Amino acid sequence: MHNPSTKNLEAGIRYWQQELTGWPADLHNELYRNLHEWKQGGLTPDWWARIVDVLSGWRAIRPRTKAFIYEHGIGCLSALEDEYLRLARLTLNDQPCLSDFYWNEVAGLFELARSIKGVDSPVFASKLCHFLMPNIYPVIDHAVVGVNGSYAEYWALCARLWAECEEKAALVETVKTAIGDSVFDRYPFSTKIVELSLIGERQSTPLP
Fold first, then answer.
1. Number of folded domains in the chain?
2. Which of 101, 136, 172, 189 is exposed most, by the fewest CB atoms within 10 A?
3. Domain-located, residue 93
4. DSSP 8-state assignment for residue 40
5. Is the pTM of this model over 0.90?
């Protein structure tokens, strides 16, 4: 895996916008705006109902039902909020990124999220954590990103790739251009750039 580059990022954006049917062309810009607004009143049952709908739309709850996820998550809301606020207090500014943390600092929220669905797959938990703290938890999607292994390994890979990236400012501008007008001021550039670059690298690499 190579560090994010303009070539791989642009390839990932093209694949996202042209090949991933149903994925929004704005790279989830509007969704991130909504996610931020929804949690301003705390992690309430109303917030959870909205998140379950989004998780279902992201095909993260299969084979569970929305009712199962909602009921199993309701009892975890207080613990989720406590862990979320603990991480928020660790951030140095309003725009933290995954390379500001160590895995042992962020593992607690992930394990709590995974307990809601009660399966070994990290997909559900990675998406729920991403919805809570998009700039700290990258989404793992084996089919699109092409990375296997545990979420801890994937998180560490993404954190390292972003920390070692020397083109951060230029890559942020590339994403802003792809989104177009009204880029959300809390858009999770670190996780999204790494994800898109991994997608692009996979699409650009000839099969053996």
1. 1
2. 172
3. yes
4. G
5. yes
